[in-house]
Amino acid sequence: MGKAKKKTVQDETVDLSMAEKILDQYRGVDGCLIPVLQKIQDGYGYLQEPVINLVSERLNLSLSEIIGVATFYAQFHLQARGKHIIKVCCGTACHVKKAKNLSAKVIDRLKINANETTEDRMFTFEEVSCLGACGIAPVVVVDKDVHGTLSPDKLADILDGYTESKA
Ligand code: FES
Q1: How far apart are CA 53 and CA 63, in angstroms?
Q2: What is the distance in A from the centroid of ligand 1 to the CA of 127?
Q3: Residue 131 near ligand 1, beta carbon < 6 Å
Q4: Which residues share a beta bridge with 141?
């Protein structure tokens, strides 16, 4: 196998060698697009344009097929995500318990809206449907940590903790 090509996107150089290794593992395997995209996203954090182009070439699939799959499934992301993922539940139980105030606190604190990532790529903020913890509504999940019966002030303290641990 030759040396991996490098392409530039949005001022970043993308090393395609990891994607090539993943694609080599699936050489000749039919219907492997989803596991390939999952492994590539695990490795790169999100599905970047140069990597999607490589997947298209190697699996002989059109870009529209790949983008169609990547946008259909919520698990895939076409934009950079933060080191920490903040999920504010907007399900009914959390809505009743004023989850909107929690979203407002994230927006105020991090200066990003839902589905955006901070410039330093520390945080991505998402508003999601029921997280399955309605008994402790309103609920916010940061990475894998579940925070229930949360007030905006408590959420601010939690966010500050992540920011302080960055230093
Ligand atoms: S509605 Fe928020 S956890 Fe169920």
Answers
A1: 7
A2: 11
A3: yes
A4: 87, 146
Residue type, 16: L
Residue closest to 91 by CA, chosen among 61, 64, 127, 59: 127
Task: Identify the residue whose tokens are 């090509």.
Answer: 5
What pLDDT is attached to residue 12? 58
C-beta of residue 85 within 8 angstroms of C-beta of residue 124 = yes
72-123 pLDDT per residue, tens: 998 898 988 888 999 999 999 999 999 999 999 999 999 999 989 999 989 9
Take residue 104 and report the two structure tokens written for it: 């407002």
Q: Give the pLDDT band of residue 163 (cuts 50, 70, 90).
A: confident
From the CA of 126, how far away is ligand 1's center (Å)?
14
Name the percent of the chain lying above pLDDT 70.
Answer: 91
- From residue 59, alpha-carbon distances to 36, 83, 107 in Å are 10, 30, 40
Atom in ligand 1 nearest the alpha carbon of residue 89: 2
What letter represents residue 78's amino acid?
L
Q: From ligand 1's centre to the CA of 40, what distance in Å?
A: 30
